[in-house]
């Protein structure tokens, strides 16, 4: 479509003559303005001039072009594909209707409620969960959640990194209640809500020793409520369209399927901790501070090297995969190192950690406290030295987790 060609030419830094020619052809085809005539937003009624405009109204092609020309897109447009205008038109009724309905609730109290909901389904919550669960000894649940969140982080960032869609408030289709500068499509909060709801149901079944999850009537309802609350919160705040939330729902289901499949594949042939087969069969094969010579140190070194290389590649230009890459990988990779090195007897000649005892409250406090402190320290280096931030978090969490689980029975 011509409008899509125009956006592609601009996003790929096409020549000025090519862009002008495409604009003239597009304007004549769609009845828009020419570069020499007044465009939407340039007159006295321009929203940029502080004048009021109808919310949830038609956003024309010229308006999107104007927002692009004024620098609404990220400064680095490489590897960026703009959300097609023809899809915006098809989704307009659904999106505008949903935004208008959700933003009818405009009392201040809704802002605080929606911010709490947003914080609850933030990706940072899921990222720290495997570390804390391994700290307290819930290894089966921690392993399942580890691969769910790892797949969530990868899959959800692909469209966020390569597809740009203006958030509703950016193009005046919603009131700006909360400002976010990243792409609107899809809603990662809704994706997280799906994954967290699934993990909650799985966790309840795991802790109740139900074995395989038997779907009962209340489980889908729990997941549905979490998804609806997160969708309403993001739309009400003006940062997502209803179609973003639907895409986030589909993305979340895909993440759950892939994440569970990876977990069931038994990485490196490791036995499952759900049935306690990942632990040492007897005292002679238990990894203790005095028997670490039996551990597979080649595997340990390989995991550390791969973790650093992957993080470095994700941070270097021009890719710059994710600004949160240092925190996400720095927090998720230590639990993976721990699981593959200490809870995989097949990789260490039958040696593994012994089964943990009943969780004690210091494990929860230490796990939560260390993860928060490590992230705060990492934030000091994040902007100028993102790889240093990753190293700070990675080393802090790895050492804490290994020391605590290896020595807590011997202190």
Report a brief summary of the structure:
This protein is mainly α and 411 residues long. The protein has 14 helices and two strands.
Q: Indicate the radius of gyration in whole angstroms.
A: 25 Å
Largest sheet: 2 strands, parallel
> Which structural category do the helix and sheet elements fall into?
mainly alpha
Relative strand content: under 5%
Give the % helix.
55-70%
Query: Which H/E pattern describes the elements?
Result: HHHEHHHHEHHHHHHH
Unreliable runs? 1-16, 18-57
Produce the secondary structure layout:
Layout: H1 2-11, H2 16-30, H3 61-69, E1 81-82, H4 85-102, H5 108-120, H6 123-136, H7 139-162, E2 163-164, H8 188-207, H9 218-236, H10 242-264, H11 297-315, H12 325-342, H13 361-381, H14 386-407
Parallel strand pairs: 1-2
Helix pairs in contact: 1-2, 5-9, 6-7, 6-12, 6-13, 7-8, 7-10, 7-12, 8-9, 8-10, 11-12, 11-14, 12-14, 13-14
Give structural notes:
The structure is a single chain. By secondary structure, the protein is an all-alpha fold. The protein is 60% helix and 1% strand. It is built from 14 helices and two strands. It has a two-stranded parallel sheet. α6 packs antiparallel against α7, α7 (139-162) packs antiparallel against α8 (188-207) and α13 (361-381) runs antiparallel to α14 (386-407). It starts with a helix and ends with a helix.
């Amino acid at each position: 479509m011509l409008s899509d060609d125009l956006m592609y030419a601009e996003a790929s830094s096409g020549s000025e003559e090519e862009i002008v020619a495409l604009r003239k052809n597009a304007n004549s085809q769609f009845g828009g303005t020419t570069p020499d005539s007044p465009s939407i937003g340039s007159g006295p009624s321009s929203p940029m001039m502080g004048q009021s405009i109808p919310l949830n109204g038609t956003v024309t092609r010229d308006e999107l072009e104007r927002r692009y020309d004024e620098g609404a897109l990220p400064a680095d447009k490489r590897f960026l594909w703009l959300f097609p205008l023809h899809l915006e038109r098809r989704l307009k009724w659904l999106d505008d209707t949903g935004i208008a309905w959700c933003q009818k609730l405009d009392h201040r109290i809704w802002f605080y409620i929606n911010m709490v909901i947003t914080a609850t389904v933030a990706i940072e919550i899921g990222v720290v969960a495997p570390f804390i669960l391994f700290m307290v000894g819930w290894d089966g649940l921690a392993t399942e959640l580890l691969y769910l969140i790892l797949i969530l982080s990868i899959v959800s960032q692909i469209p966020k990194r390569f597809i740009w869609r203006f958030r509703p408030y950016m193009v005046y289709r919603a009131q700006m209640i909360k400002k976010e500068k990243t792409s609107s499509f899809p809603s990662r909060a809704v994706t997280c809500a799906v994954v967290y709801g699934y993990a909650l149901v799985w966790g309840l079944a795991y802790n109740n020793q139900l074995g395989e999850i038997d779907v009962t009537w209340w489980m889908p309802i729990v997941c549905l409520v979490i998804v609806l609350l997160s969708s309403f919160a993001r739309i009400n705040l003006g940062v997502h369209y209803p179609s973003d939330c639907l895409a986030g729902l589909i993305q979340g289901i895909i993440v759950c399927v892939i994440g569970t499949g990876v977990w069931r594949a038994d990485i490196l042939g490791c036995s499952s901790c759900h049935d306690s087969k990942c632990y040492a069969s007897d005292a002679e094969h238990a990894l203790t501070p005095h028997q670490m010579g039996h551990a597979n140190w080649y595997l340990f070194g390989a995991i550390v090297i791969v973790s650093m290389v992957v993080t470095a590649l994700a941070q270097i230009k021009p890719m710059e995969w994710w600004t949160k890459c240092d925190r996400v990988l720095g927090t998720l990779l230590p639990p993976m190192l721990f699981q593959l090195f200490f809870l995989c007897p097949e990789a260490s000649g039958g040696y593994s950690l012994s089964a943990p005892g009943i969780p004690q409250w210091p494990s929860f406090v230490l796990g939560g406290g260390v993860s928060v402190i490590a992230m705060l320290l990492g934030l000091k280096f994040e902007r100028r030295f993102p790889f240093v931030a990753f190293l700070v978090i990675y080393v802090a969490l790895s050492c804490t987790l290994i020391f605590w689980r290896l020595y807590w029975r011997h202190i």
